[in-house]
């Protein structure tokens, strides 16, 4: 019986330690890029956005969705990571196109981010939209985004 209780306790601790593993891994990778002195300014800005978005998401989920699973947070974090990577890949792929086409791609990603809120946060609107409103930022997305829905929206539009 003692072995069974020890095994269950160990399993519970291991499961708890693995909770939010994706979220934490993406956040740590982004923080590492932000603090690396050899990282370019653009890459630092992109990763600073990821850190801010993940911090915001984690804070708001604790406040507004305390019963949500760690898997949900992990899925949102992975979708954020995938969305940002698709954005940078799309910009590179279309860099030789006319500027109006490049701007259309930029608007498509911004629109997906702003029209797919996760929390519909009206209280911190200035903070939530701070990257969108900053024309000097290489990443112009809302912090309050349902990243899964935004990613699906953009991939559907890119297929057209």
Q: Can you walk through the features of this model?
A:
- By secondary structure, this protein is mostly helical.
- Helices cover 71% and strands 0% of the residues.
- The protein is built from seven helices and no strands.
- It has helices at residues 2-18, 21-35, 41-64, 70-93, 99-115, 125-128, 147-159.
- Helix 2 packs across helix 4 (70-93), helix 3 (41-64) runs antiparallel to helix 4 and helix 5 packs antiparallel against helix 7 (147-159).
- The longest helix is centred in the first third of the chain and has 24 residues, at 41-64.
- It starts with a helix and ends with a helix.
- The model is unreliable at 1-17 (pLDDT under 50).
Concise account of the structure shown:
The chain has 160 residues and is mainly α.
N/C terminus separation = 61 Å
**Series of secondary-structure elements, N-terminal to C-terminal:** HHHHHHH
Give the mean pLDDT: 88
Low-confidence stretches: 1-17
Task: Quote the beta fraction.
Answer: under 5%
């Amino acid at each position: 019986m003692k072995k069974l209780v020890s095994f269950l306790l160990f399993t519970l601790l291991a499961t708890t330690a693995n909770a939010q593993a994706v979220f934490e891994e993406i956040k740590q990778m982004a923080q590492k890029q932000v603090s690396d002195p050899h990282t370019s300014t653009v890459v630092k800005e992109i990763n600073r956005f990821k850190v801010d978005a993940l911090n915001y998401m984690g804070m708001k989920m604790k406040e507004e969705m305390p019963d949500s699973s760690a898997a949900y947070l992990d899925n949102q974090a992975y979708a954020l990571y995938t969305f940002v990577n698709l954005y940078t890949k799309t910009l590179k792929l279309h860099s030789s196109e006319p500027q109006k086409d490049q701007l259309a791609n930029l608007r498509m990603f911004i629109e997906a981010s702003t029209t797919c809120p996760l929390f519909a946060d009206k209280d911190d609107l200035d903070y939530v939209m701070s990257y969108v409103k900053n024309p000097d930022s290489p990443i112009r997305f809302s912090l309050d985004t349902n990243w899964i829905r935004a990613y699906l929206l953009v991939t559907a539009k890119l297929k057209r």
